[in-house]
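Duplicate of earlier report; RNA methyltransferase input re-posted below.
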Amino acid sequence: MNHPIETITSPSNPLIKSLKSLERKKGRSETGLFLAEGARLVEQGLEQGWKAETLVITATMAERPHLAALAKRASAAGARVVLAPERLMSKVTHKDNAQSVIASFHQQHRPLDALTKTGDGIWIALYEVRDPGNLGTILRTADCAGASGVVLLETCCDPYSFETVRASMGSIFDMPFANASFDAFNSWRQAQGLSLTAASVNGTARHDKAPFGARSVIIMGNEQAGLPEAIEAQCDTLALIPMRGGADSLNLAQATAIMTYEAWRQRDFT
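Output:
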């Protein structure tokens, strides 16, 4: 269904206020929406079948062929399409050099069973990850490595925050993820016959010697506290990533990438 394209110019317009509210978790929770910024990300969301609520394009750029095509596509998918001056775009994104396209999308909340898959695969489980930049980067890494899904355990940061979506570089739309308690997740992964390997300072196997297996979950702990002992006790392998020099730890997203690519390497990158 195609909607007519509107033009707005006032910062007090209800749409601008509504889009600005999506920078806060309260706004995202109340509306079930989140923001994506940039033509490439928005195209990716539409391509993957995510439902766009509103598409806003900088008025002076609207005649550009690829943006006109994007507006037409979003409108055909049922989105409201709006043109706005650059100063209003900056108001929504809190950036002086705002992208020329912003869209609000409907969130997707999958059950854990949606990540079930037969055949070989790598899953990533994150226990109480707190930094949205880390979460977005890990979704991007999982996507690049062809992971089967990401599980957010217990209380993680919001995957639909502006920071996470930005850091994911579009992988928020490609990489399936689900929230779960550790107990529900552990029952699910055991039922699927998935091994569980943690990166840990208590590791007994070097990460490149850890037997990930053909169907494996890599579990990573909270940025500050790591994994609780009770969860490490449930793991099949505790892997240690070698380090030397003055730093005593790697960034969580870096460590997750090292573990993920090692598990994939052991499958000869297939």
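The chain has a mean pLDDT of 95.

Merging into the original ticket.
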